[in-house]
Design goal:
The chain has 163 residues and is of the alpha+beta class. The protein has one domain: Hotdog Thioesterase (Thiol Ester Dehydrase, Chain A), CATH 3.10.129.10. The protein has four helices and seven strands, in the order ααββαβββββα. Strands 1, 2, 3, 4, 5, 6 and 7 form a seven-stranded antiparallel beta sheet that branches. A hairpin with a 3-residue loop joins strand 5 and strand 6.
Length: 163
């Protein structure tokens, strides 16, 4: 499959909502871009941290997906940490995601965001679970009971389960 912006938006609809574009998408390196826009900003005209984290997560997730072992069916984030190094007030930010470790059970990806001048904006290491479930197994899990865990008891003094 060729990964351009349209393909990425179809596979990951949140990237369309975010406004991310594909610069270069390949297993060894995924590059996505997010243009600065006032609608994506917080106070002071800075790109919102959630927009930056969303871009980094999308790049890292796509990188992990492209590096899945043969026969694996998907990936999900186990842990992620974002280190904010600099704000972005203009132009764009570019995410570069690279796999650090690809195994049968986890994939570790490092994603770096840089501003238009090449300065570091964030660093985001993520660990992602490798799924081996078939489509039928996923469908069966989704069709199963919504909650298998018993409900916790009400707090002391509550008569109807509310506080």
């Amino acid at each position: 499959m060729t990964w351009d912006t349209a393909a990425m938006h179809a596979a990951m609809p949140f990237t369309a909502l975010l406004g991310a574009t594909a610069v270069d998408v390949d297993a060894p390196e995924v590059r996505l871009r997010l243009d600065w826009h006032a609608d994506r900003c917080t106070a002071g005209g800075l790109l919102h941290g959630g927009a930056l984290m969303g871009l980094a997560d999308a790049a890292g997730g796509l990188c992990a997906f492209l590096n899945l072992p043969e026969g694996a069916t998907g990936t999900a984030t186990i842990s992620s940490a974002t280190n904010f190094l600099r704000g972005v007030r203009a132009a764009h930010v570019e995410a570069v995601a690279r796999p650090l470790q690809v195994g049968r059970t986890v994939i570790v990806v490092e994603t770096a965001l840089h501003d238009a001048e090449g300065r570091a904006v964030t660093m985001q290491p993520t660990t992602r679970h490798v799924s081996w479930l078939t489509e039928e197994e996923v469908a069966a899990q989704l069709a199963g009971p919504a909650q298998d865990c018993p409900r916790p008891p009400p707090p002391p003094g509550a008569r109807d389960g509310t506080r």
